[in-house]
Design brief:
Layout lengths: L5 H13 L4 H4 L13 E3 L1 E2 L8 E12 L2 E16 L2 E4 L6 H5 L3 E11 L20 E8 L19 E5 L14 H4 L7 E6 L22 E10 L3 E4 L16 E5 L8 E9 L12 E4 L4 H13 L50 E3 L13 E2 L2
Antiparallel strand pairs: 1-15, 2-10, 3-4, 3-6, 4-5, 4-16, 5-8, 6-7, 7-8, 9-10, 9-12, 10-11, 11-14, 12-13, 13-14
């Protein structure tokens, strides 16, 4: 799992690239948790069609690090489409302080969203073209109470939740549905959850060590479970052999299946946030922000941009409700005479249990380890 040191890793990488201060010189003051980011450990490869509502948040920006300018274009966080033009992720994914930890500034930030399963060309080692399907985010918002410098490990209330708003509606794949307050009562320790992310697949000895080649920025999935449940957060996986999240998985989803009479039973219940303890994602699972704790905030932010006319899709201005089941006849056919399996647009996701050998990284924060940047002329 991870502690919010994702962004700090970027600053450290930039410093190393520029011959600037060493790790010791840049270490946060006592009492400040080193930020960290996450990927999925003990998971399995996922394709663009597995959990098709998930994607990677990318950023292009100018980083001024101690007087020197650099350009960065990289995969930052995992995330989930919750309406055709709205993406849910973690607040620290968009926090400028997380990228510099006070040692620089971020300007000209350009955020985009892609569903590509292989984002290894955007691991921070080079400036490459945007993925072909990358959609521009015209706006984003982080919870007003989020403060990276006060982010706690364990189970707490960290307000680590954010939204990005796309300038094009994604209507060719299904979006995720958020769990309701009533359905959240079904969550408990032991509840099975599916996790998805582009983070580290192998935990390193230090959150500042670069991931092993070929083990980062590739879409992974796996089945895990809730190990500890709090009011605003929960832990995903507690054992080293469990599927769990790590650096680069930040912002990504945990899905659970609820008992319901509605057409879909899969719900997004968590957003990858931070490490459970100082061991990072090396030995235990990380912590998710509970979606149901922030339903009011999410709904209000979505509605506000429909009310002012800035969103591109407002068929449902707030939280998108789960549709009702279509009536079926005795032969298992719906009113149109089609088998449910034949109907287009149905959500199909792998729910098989992933082997406990691949793992989910904990912190899902941002995959910044090993980041290289190009000096801007």
């Amino acid at each position: 799992m991870i502690i919010p040191s994702t962004l700090f890793a970027l600053a450290l990488s930039a410093a190393a690239f520029a011959g600037e201060p060493s790790f010791e010189a840049a270490t946060p003051s006592a009492g400040a948790a080193a930020p960290t980011i996450s990927a999925i450990i003990n998971g399995e490869d996922a394709t663009i069609d597995d959990y098709p509502m998930t994607g990677g948040m990318m950023m292009d920006a100018d980083l001024n690090f101690q007087g020197t300018d650099y350009e960065v274009r990289m995969f930052v966080c995992s995330s989930t489409l919750i309406a055709p033009d709205v993406v849910l992720l973690a607040a620290h994914c968009l926090d400028d302080y997380a990228f510099t930890y006070g040692f620089g500034t971020i300007e000209n930030k350009d955020i985009r969203w892609t569903r590509q399963a292989d984002l290894s060309a955007h691991d921070g080692n080079a400036i490459n073209e945007w993925p072909a399907d990358a959609i521009v985010a015209w706006d984003w918002v982080v919870h007003e109470s989020f403060d990276l410098q006060k982010l706690q490990t364990g189970i707490a209330t960290n307000y680590d939740v954010a939204l990005i708003f796309l300038d094009q509606a994604v209507t060719d794949v299904p979006h995720a549905y958020l769990i309701t307050e009533e359905e959240a009562a079904q969550l408990a320790v032991g509840t099975e959850v599916a996790v998805v992310g582009w983070g580290q697949q192998i935990a390193s000895d230090s959150p500042f060590d670069p991931p092993e080649p070929g083990s980062y920025a590739y879409k992974q999935q796996g089945m895990s479970s809730i190990a500890e449940l709090g009011e605003a957060e929960f832990q995903v996986g507690s054992l080293e052999t469990d599927v769990r999240k790590c650096h680069g998985d930040s912002g990504g989803p945990s899905f659970a299946w609820v008992e319901t009479d509605l057409a879909e039973s899969m719900r997004i219940v968590g957003v990858t946030s931070h490490a459970y303890d100082q061991t990072d994602c090396k030995k235990t699972g990380g912590v998710d922000t509970r979606v149901d704790f922030y339903l009011g905030w999410i709904d209000a932010e979505m509605r506000a941009r429909c009310e002012d006319g800035t969103r591109v899709w407002c068929d449902e201005p707030g939280l998108v409700p789960v549709p009702a089941k279509e009536p079926e006849d005795d032969g298992g056919k719906d009113v149109d005479g089609e088998d449910e399996e034949e109907k287009g647009g149905r959500l199909t996701c792998s729910t098989s249990t992933a082997p406990a050998s691949r793992g989910l990284g904990m912190l899902a924060a941002l995959g910044l380890a090993g980041l290289m940047v190009r000096r801007r002329r």
